[in-house]
User: Which sequence fits this backbone?
């Protein structure tokens, strides 16, 4: 992050909102929308500024790349083998139980919607939160894709001014009332709650930036 910080300062104006909603200690699950390959840099910067260290869930292939694999392993990020997703959930549960703040991109990939808004969510973030009784905190982000457009492999810097990147931290998604439900029901309802909450937050930021 120290290496990337000058690039972040050059490329963006940070607009961080409701960061006090991030827990100061203890395990938690952050569920964020995914608009760009550079999302972890901008989200990680915001989390580090609050005195916490994020642990990202990331696909296994990233752990075996020369450029970033050593960083993913040494920083304690959570490896997810998509052929055995349950192993990634178990690893994330252990990390949260140890007090880590685990970041999940529940869409499973960078959004493929042309308007950049939220796709349907997978269940991993909700499963981790239910198994650990840790808070599930939605985080909406918008503007990173204007600097590093999704799937394009290029960086776009503003000629006249830095581009605004907004990160909005939401209230924890309520799951306590679901803990006595059958697990499949609890997961289904929890995912829908997260979907509705995060979609509304993303829409809010997208509409603001459009104006």
Assistant:
């Amino acid at each position: 992050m120290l290496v990337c910080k000058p690039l972040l300062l050059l490329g963006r104006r940070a607009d961080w909102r409701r960061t006090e909603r991030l827990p100061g200690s203890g395990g938690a699950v952050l569920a964020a929308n995914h608009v760009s390959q550079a999302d972890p840099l901008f989200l990680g910067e915001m989390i580090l500024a609050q005195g916490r260290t994020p642990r990202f869930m990331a696909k296994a292939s990233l752990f075996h790349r020369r450029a970033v694999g050593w960083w993913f392993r040494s920083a304690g990020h959570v490896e997810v083998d998509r052929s055995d997703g349950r192993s990634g959930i178990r690893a994330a549960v252990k990390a949260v139980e140890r007090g880590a703040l685990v970041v999940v991109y529940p869409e499973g990939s960078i959004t493929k919607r042309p308007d950049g808004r939220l796709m349907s969510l997978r269940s991993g973030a909700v499963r981790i939160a239910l198994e650990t009784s840790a808070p599930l905190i939605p985080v909406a982000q918008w503007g990173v894709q204007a600097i590093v457009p999704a799937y394009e492999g290029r960086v776009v810097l503003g000629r006249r001014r830095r581009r605004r990147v907004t990160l909005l931290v939401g209230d924890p998604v309520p799951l306590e009332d679901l803990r006595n439900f059958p697990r499949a029901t609890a997961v289904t309802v929890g995912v829908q709650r997260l979907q509705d909450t995060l979609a509304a937050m993303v829409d809010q930021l997208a509409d603001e930036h459009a104006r």
Observations:
- Residues 183-210 form the longest helix (28 residues).
- The CA atoms of residues 54 and 142 lie 19 Å apart.
- Residues 1-5 have pLDDT under 50 and may be disordered.
